[in-house]
Amino acid sequence: MSENSTEASPATSPVMKRVLRLSVYAAVLAATIFGVYRVTRTTSAPADSAAEHNHSAAPTSATAQPVHLAAADAERIGVTYAEVLSGPLSKEVRTVGQVTFDETRVRTISTKIDGWVEQLLVNETGQQVRPGQHLLSIYSPMLIAAQEELILAGRLQHDMRGATDAAQANAATLLESARRRLAYWDIAANDIADIERTAVVRRTLPLYAAVGGFVLDKNVFAGQKIMAGEALYKVADLSTVWIEGEVFEQDLSQIKVGAEVQATLQAMPGVHRTGRVSFVYPTLSPDTRTVRVRVVLSNAALQLKPGMYATLLIQGTQRNDVLTVPRSAVLSTGERSLVFVREANGSLAPREVAIGVSTGERIQILRGLAAGETVVASATFLVDAESNLGTALGGMGNMPGMEMTTPPVPLPKGKE
To answer: What is the pLDDT of residue 356?
Structure first.
């Protein structure tokens, strides 16, 4: 047994040493990890607490402090000033629109009798039509019968010249009735007079345009049978057109009927047309949250064509005695609006304000400022950054590890 033990010890001694060495390494590693964990917990807790309770560590515009800027520094960063003014303010609402027809100048041309189109003179869509222009010639048995009645009534009146007054009156009434029937069927007065004068029945009679404009729709062809009331032409007078645009819900209070509008069209760059709001539609689109507005424009030269796009600049309702500052003077953080006011000592103090409507250059101040005060009009963001930087640096003195003390001044040699 002793011999076996003596022989085994040389074999097991290196293994045991290796095991012991690994155990020591593991213990040291565990102690290191535990020490790092304790240090992290000890140092992070005060930092987290400071971050939670010391709001100056993350400065915002709400904690901004007055800024003292020398004239040279203000000029270097581009700071300018403006006075708080009191006066009239009218908001301009900008939107896009599209040229369309003036619905009050769109007419349908039809006949009041049945018949056939013998001759078609206005036979193209888009063709311009003048008032009283000959559109087509129509053959109708009803017109033939009405012409015969007119001729007979004329002869009867001629024959009754020597009869009693009552007989002459009856003949005159019949003649007037025959004339009126043809007139009600849109037969021109000169054509009726020619029929009476010549006492000849015409096979066809002309149909004239009651209004002028451009043919939008043509639903008639030569040789076609047409019925009373059937729409033959749709004609639009383009001497006046509409532009319809969409105004957002929040701008609706600024839009009034009669407001002046400047219209700019892509087809005519640099040319501005002036019109007025003629109608604000009574309904709002639930999808776009917009309301349609209508602008009337004169189009005597026929340059405005339906379908063109236009940019509309609508003059909103004017407000009097309104406090305003330049738009660039107001710094909005999402939760509040700030301006920097120049104090009597020259410092720039942040002040929270309530804002109202705005134009392209100025913005209304509802409260927070008084007329005559001076505010920063440009480089407001840089002034705000300077103010917040001072707040941040001032609050770091209470943070762990950020205690700032003046280093001791070394004494001269021999006086230590």
So the answer is: 83
What number of other Cβ atoms are within 10 A of residue 208's Cβ? 17
Distance CA 186, CA 142 (A): 13
Is the CA virtual torsion 195, 199, 201, 202 positive or negative?
negative
413: phi > 0 → left, psi -120 to 50 → alpha, else beta; which?
beta
Nearest to 302 by CA among 136, 105, 122: 105
| pLDDT at 395 exceeding the cut of 70 | no
Give, for 310, the enclosing helix (H) or strand (E).
strand 309-326
Q: How far apart are the first and last CA of the chain?
A: 79
Contact between 293 and 314 under an 8 Å Cβ cutoff? The reply is yes
Per-residue b/e over 310-324, b at no fewer than 16 CB within 10 Å?
Answer: bbbebbbeebeebbb
Q: What per-residue confidence (pLDDT) applies to 15?
A: 47
- Residue 243 pLDDT exceeds 60: yes
Asked if 283 contacts 273 with a C-beta cutoff of 8 angstroms, the reply is no
Helix (H, G, I), strand (E, B) or coil at 343: coil
Percent above pLDDT 90 for the chain: 52
pTM for the full predicted model: 0.61
In whole angstroms, what is the distance from residue 221 CA to residue 223 CA?
6
Q: Which two tokens stand for residue 106?
A: 């769109």
Rounded to the nearest angstrom, the gap between the alpha carbon of residue 146 and the centroid of all alpha carbons in its chain is 59
pLDDT digits (tens, 9 = 90+) for 358-393: 777 888 899 999 999 999 888 666 776 766 655 444
392 sits in the region (left: phi over 0; alpha: psi -120 to 50; else beta) called: alpha
- The 3-state DSSP class for residue 239 equals coil
Q: Which amino acid is at 180?
A: R
Token pair listed for 284: 């709002």
Q: CB–CB of 193/182 below 8 Å?
A: no
Integer Cα distance of 343 and 1 in angstroms: 103
**Tokens standing for 121?**
């003179």
- Please check whether residue 240 is in contact with residue 298, taking contact to mean a CB–CB distance below 8 angstroms: yes
CB-based burial of residue 171 (10 Å sphere; 0-12 exposed, 13-18 middle, 19+ buried)?
A: buried
Residue 374 CB neighbour total at 10 angstroms:
15
